[in-house]
Amino acid sequence: MRNMGHGLIERIRHAVGCGEFSRASLLWEDYARGLERKLKLDGGLSAEELREAGELVAWSRQVVQCARARAMEQLDSLQVAGQYETPPRPQTPRLVIANF
Q1: Cα separations (Å) of 65 from 9, 11, 19, 72?
Q2: pLDDT tens per residue, range 31-79
Q3: ∠ CA 26-31-36 to the nearest 5 degrees?
Q4: CA-based angle 60:63:30, to the nearest 5?
Q5: Does residue 92 surpass a pLDDT of 50?
Q6: What is the model's pTM?
Q7: What is the spatial distance between Cα 54 and Cα 58, in angstroms, rounded to a whole number?
Q8: Per-residue pLDDT for 1 more than 60?
Q9: Is residue 99's pLDDT more than 80?
Q10: From CA 44, how far away is CA 85, in angstroms rounded?
Q11: What is the per-residue DSSP string for the chain?
Q12: Dihedral pair phi/psi, residue 89, rounded to 5°
């Protein structure tokens, strides 16, 4: 598990760090299935594997929370900017339209 898990952990970290959350989610599912297989086959996880998984969960959670906060700040900025945007002028009916 350590060899297989380590490469997968690095790929998860890379995807999460790059903001590729859909890809990271798929990698997380692979990682979880690997842990589940190990639990069924070996009857448990080593202290190192548990520590490694816990660190990955904590790190991923923190990165995702930061990304979410940045996205919320951007959304708030767009909403404020939208309040100061000049509204479109209503079309006034005209009797004659001329193009020269």
Answers
A1: 19, 19, 11, 10
A2: 999 999 999 999 999 999 999 999 999 999 999 999 999 999 999 898 8
A3: 125
A4: 30
A5: yes
A6: 0.71
A7: 6
A8: no
A9: no
A10: 59
A11: -HHHHHHHHHHHHHHHHTT-HHHHHHHHHHHHHHHHHHHHHHSS--HHHHHHHHHHHHHHHHHHHHHHHHHHHHHHHHHHHHHHSPPPPPPPP-S-----
A12: -75, 135
**Tokens found for residue 12:** 């998860």
CB of 56 closer than 8 Å to CB of 12: yes
d(CA 36, CA 44): 9
pLDDT for 4: 54
Residue 70 and residue 51: Cα distance in Å, rounded?
29
Distance CA 28, CA 95 (A): 65
Cβ contacts of residue 73 below 8 Å, gap of 6+?
none
Structure tokens at 71: 């996205």
